[in-house]
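Dissemination and training. As part of the outreach component of the grant, students in the summer workshop were shown how a complex can be specified as a set of sequence lines and then modelled as a single object. The example used during the hands-on session is reproduced here so that future cohorts can follow it. Participants entered these lines:
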Amino acid sequence: MCRLRFLTGAVVVLFAVFFAADAIMAATTGKIVGRVTDEKGEPLPGASVAIEEIRLGGTTDADGFYVIVSVTPGQYKLTASMVGYHSVVKEQVGIRVDFTTTVDFQLRETELELEEMVVVAERPPVDPDKTDSRYVVTAEEIERTPILRNVTEVLELEPGYAVDGSGAIRGWVASHNVVYVDGVPVSGRDGRGIGGGWGDGGERQWYGVNLKAVQEVSVITGGMNAEYGNAQAGVIQIVTRDGGAQYHGEAEYRMTPAGKKHWGENVYDAPELRGNAKWNDPSWTSEVDPETGNLVHPRTNYTDWRGHYLDGFLSGPLFGQSSFFASARHLRDAAVLPGPWRTRPANLRTTAKLTVPAGSNMKLRIGWMYDFSEGINNGRLSRYSFPNVIRGPGRDLFIPDGSVAGEEKQTDNMIYGVITHTISPRTFYEVSVSRYGSRTDTSGVGNKTTAVRTDSEGYFYIGREDVWAFKVGEQNRFGLKADLSSQMTRGHFAKTGFEFMTFENWWTWTGMTPGDAKRDIRYIGQPEPGEAVTPKQFGAYVQDKMEFEGLIVNVGLRYDRMWGQDVQLLPSFTSGWYNAMDTFIQAPTGPMRTIEGWSPRLGISHPITARSSMHFYYGRFMMLPSFRQQFGSHWETASGPVGIPGVPWSHFNAKDESYGANVISPVWDHGHPTNSFEVGTDWNFVSDYVFSLAAFYKSGHLQSTGIWHDAVDPVTGRTGAIGGTYGSERTEDVKGFEFSMRKGFSNYFSFRAAMNLEWLEAIHWLGDLESVASVLVYPDRSFIASGKYHKEWRAAGGRREPVPLTAEEIKTLGDKAEENLQKVRENVDAFLTSGGAGPVQPAWEVEGLTDEARQYLQGIWFQKLWFSTGNIFTRGRRSQGSLQMFFASPLDYGPGAQYAGATLFGGINANLIYRIYTGSKFNYIKLTGANTPARRPLHTEADLNLQKHFRFGDVNADVFVEVFNLFNQQDASGITGTDYMWWGLQQPRPDDATYLNYGDVSDRSRYIGNPRITHVGIRLSF
Amino acid sequence: MRNGILVGFAAALLLLSAGTVYGGGVAGSWGLGTFLDYNRSIFKLKDWYETGRGQAGVVFTYVMSPRTSVEMEFHRSIFENGALEDRAFTWPIDGRDYKSPDAVSEMRISSFLVNAVVRRGGGGILAKEKYSTYVTVGAGFYDYKTDVSGLIFPGQREAPLDKELVIEPFSDTRTALGANVGVGVEAFVFDNISLDVRARYNLLLGELRPMEAWGLEGQTFPMQFLNARGGIRFYFKK
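and obtained this result:
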C-alpha cells in the first residue's frame, strides 16, 4: 500500500515537474472522508463506503479511515457496510466543489437484531477546510430563488461580488475574472466584443450557461488556489447538471404586461423634444417622406408592447447508463423605448450535456453551449452613438424600425469533452478537450454612407439611405487539459495538471462619427477580415492540501506563459514613420516577447471552536494582457474619408491607439501581477446561522494603462503624440471588509445578507521608472542612414511605398537627429511639466528583445517620463450589499383540505431581494476651491417574487408574480457635478433657460433603470 | 375624533384581554400595543434635523418563552424644522450671508420592524406588578421622505440676489433597510397589561443629499438616531 502511494506521489510530482503542465483544469469535484468504527469506537478496517447513485466508493484502512475522491457536487446517499455488521445509510450528504465533506459511521454487529439504519446527514454550517473566501450556491438554492434569471444575478447576492451589474469582484473589473464551466475556462480576454468595451482592455466575457442547467455555482472572491490562473479579480465556477435515471422536464413562461417602462413622460410628449413635436399641427403630423411615402412623424404605442420569456429543460436516461440534460432559453422582451426593434430579435441560448459511464471507473461527459442573438447594426461605434433608442434632444425619435446598416449576428459556441478516470479510491485524473468559437457578422452593409436626412423643419432625423459600417470577427480557441488528483496520504491531497490553448482570433469594427467627417476602425491582428492572430497559452500548477488535526495548509505554485504570435516589432516607436494605416500594417514584424510568470499561493485554515474557523491567505496572481492590449489598433480619418485611390485603408491616417510588443514596458514580460492578502473567519453562532468576515488587501502592480509616445522627429521636430500604447505603469490598491450572514433553509425560512465595505480603491503612480506616463523616441544618425527611416510615401501598385532618402537628406536629417539627441542628453527634463525623466537609452539593448527586434531597433533611443506620485480615486463603490429572504410553506400548511396538491396557504413561496450600493466616485471642486473626491448618490432596489404551487398527478405547476423595483426607487447614481454637491441639485437650475422654456428635459434619462415592473408567469415540471 | 378612535381601540383591547391570561406557561401568548416616542438625531443626521417626534405606533408581540419575545412594529416619526430653515449661504458675488425666509425642511419616517426581545431573568412577564428589563434587537424597513422647499438659489451670477428665485422643491425618499438595538423595562400593572419604556439606537442605510452651500458637506449616510419610547401593551393567552 505504501509503495503504491509513493508511486502515485512520484507520478504527481513528475507530472508537474517534467510535463510542466498546467492545469487550468479547475476543480469540479469534492471529496468525502471519514472514519468507520464499531459501537465501541474501535476502527473497522476493510469496511466499504459507497455512493450508489454514481457508483463511487472507498474502503477503510487499518485506522478505519476512508476517502472517496472525484465526487461531483450534489446530494447523495452514502452507505457503509461490512460483513458481520448492519449497514448504515446516510442520506442528503451534500458535496461541494473543492471542499472536504466528513461523514463518520458507527456500525453495529449483526448479532443485534436491527434493521438497516438510515440517517439524514447534516452538512456542518462552517466548512473547516476553507482557506479562501468562497461562496457556493447549490441547485436547490437556485430553485428556491426563481426571481433570479441568470448566473450573474445569483452571484450578485454573494459577498464581494458587485450588486450593480458591473460584475466586479472586490472592486476589480469583471474582465479580470476567470470563469470555468465544468472545469473548462469559457471566458477570456481574447478580443470578444471589444467594440463595446474598448476601455481597460475590456473584452466582453461570455459564459452563457442557462441557470436551469446549473448544479452548483461558486465565486471565489479571494484566496484562489494555484489551479486558478490568468485572473486578478476572482474565480467563478459553474458545474452543470447531469441527467438522472428518470426523466424530468420543466417549462417556464413569463410575461411582462404592457405599460411605460421608463422614467419621465411618454417620449412623444416629453420635454426633451424641446417643443419640436407638434401633435396639434395637422401639417406636421401628416408630413410624408417623399422618398419612401411613409409618415415622417409616426407615433407608435410603445407602451402597449408586451414582453415574453420562455425557458425550460429536459433530462433523463439515454442508453445504457448514460444520461442527458438539455435546456434552452428564448427572450422576447419588449423594447423600453421606440427604436430599431419592438421586441428582442431572434435569440436562443442552449446548454446540453451527455454523461456516459465508460466502465466502472471512468466517466465521459460531453457538454455543448450555444448562444445566438440577432441585433441591429446602428452604423455607429457606441461612443458616437447614433440612436438605437432615443437619446439627447430626441432628434432620433422617428428613425424607422430596422437599420440601413445591416443586421448583426452574434454566435457563441462551445463544445467540450471531459474524461474522468478513477485509478483508485484515492486517485483520479481528468482530461478535457474543448473548442470555443465566437462569431460576429454583419449582413446587409451598404456600399457607402449617405447623409442623414431630416424632416422639413430640419430637426428630426428620418434616417439614411445607406450606411457603410460593419462589425465582423471570430474568436476560436482550442484547449487541451489534464489534471491529476491524489489523496497521497491521509494528510496530503495533491493536485497537478497542465493546460495548453491555441487561439485563432480576429476582429474588425468600423463606423463613422455623427457628422461623417471622420471614420473610425478598430481591429485585432490585421484590418482585413479573416487575418487572425494565433498565439499560444500555457499554464501549469502543483498544489498540496495538507490536513493535520484540523489545521489545513493549502500550498501551491503556478506558472503561466503566452507566446507565439508575430507582431509589429515596435508599433509605437515606428508610427512616427508609418503614419497612416496602410503603411503601418507594412511595418516590420517579428515574434512577440514571451510573457510568463510564477504565482505562489498559500492558504491556512484552522478551527477556533467546533463551530468556527479562521483562515489566512497570501497569493500572487499573474494575468496576461488582453488581446486588445497586445494585438489591437485603432485608427481614424483625420479629416473626412479621403485616401489615396486604390490604396486600401489609406484614408485612416490618424492613429489613436496601437498596442503590441512595447519593448519598454515590463508588462510584456510579466503580465499584470497582483498580491493579495486576506484573513477571515466563519462562525456558526446559533442554530444554522453563519456569520462570515474577511478583511482583504489587494495590490495590483504593473496595471495596464495608456502611454503616449512622442517621436522627436528630425523632419518635424517634436511631433507631439504619435499614438498611445498599452503599458503597465500604475498600481491599483483595494482594501476592505467583506461580511455576510446566512441562514440555511429550516422552519420554512432562510435568508442571506452580504455587505462589502471598501475604504480605499485607488490608482496611483509610484513616481519612479515603474510609473511611466509617456515615452520620447529619438532616431540617431545611423537609423536615418539605415533605410528604415521614411519621410515620404508614394502610391505604387495598389499600395504606398516609402520614398528613399537622398544622400543630402540623409546627411541633413542625420545631423538634425544627432542635435535632438544631444539636446535631450544635456537636459533630460526638457519636456517635463511634473514628475521625472529617465536617462536616454538605446532601445536595441533592452533586455529580452528578439533578434529581429534588436536588429530593427538599432539606432533608436528612448527616454521614459513619469508622473509624480499621486492617487486617483477611481471607479469603486465604497459600500454595497444585498439581502435575500425566502419563505416557503409546506404543501399541507394551514387549515383546510388540499386542493390540487396544496392547502390554501400551502405551497406558497415568497422571495424578497434587496440591493444597496453607494455611488461611484468622482472629483469635484469644493466651494472653498479645493479639488476633492466625492461620490454619486446611493441606490437601493427591492425585488419580490410570490409563487403558489399546485400538483396535478405527476405534474407540478407554479404560478407566480414578480415585482421588480418594488418600492419604485429612482436610481440617481449617475448624477455628478458641483450643482449636486454644492446645492443638492439633481434637477436643472431654477434659472436654466431650457428648463424655463420646456421643463425638465432630462426627466427620462437622468435616472438609471426602470420604475416598478411586474411580471407574471407559470412553470410546469414533471 | 382621532383621539376618540384610539381611546376606543384601547378600551376594546382592555376588555378583550381582561382575564385571558392566567397562570401556567406564557409561551404562545401574544399582545398588541401602542406607543409614543421621542427621537433625537445623532452624527451627520443631526446637521439636518435635531429632534423628531413620534406619532402613534403599533406593535404586535409574540411571547416565545419567558425570556424571549418577537415583535412586529409599525411606527411613524416626523422630524420638523430642519436645519436648512435657519442656515445661511454665503453668496460669492457679494460675500454676504443669506437665509431663505420661506425655507421648509422636514422628514417623515415610517418603519416596519421585526424585533427580538430578550429579558433578563424571565420571571417578570405576564404577572401583575412584576417587571422585567430587556435587550432588544431589530431590523426592517424604514421608509423615509425628506421634503425641502423655499431655498433661495445661491448659483445666481448677477447682483442683486433675486430672493424669489428658489430651488424647485425636492425630496430624498427611499425604503431603506435598517436596524436597531436598545434596552427597556416592561412593567405589568395587571397580568395582561403592561407599560413599556425603552431606549434604542436606530441605523438606516439611507442617504440625504449634500448641500455644501448650507454647510452640509457630502452625503449623510448612514442615518442614525436615538429614540425613547413609552407605550402600553395588552396580552392575550394563546
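The longest strand of chain A covers residues 717-746. Students were then asked to discuss how this feature might be tested experimentally.
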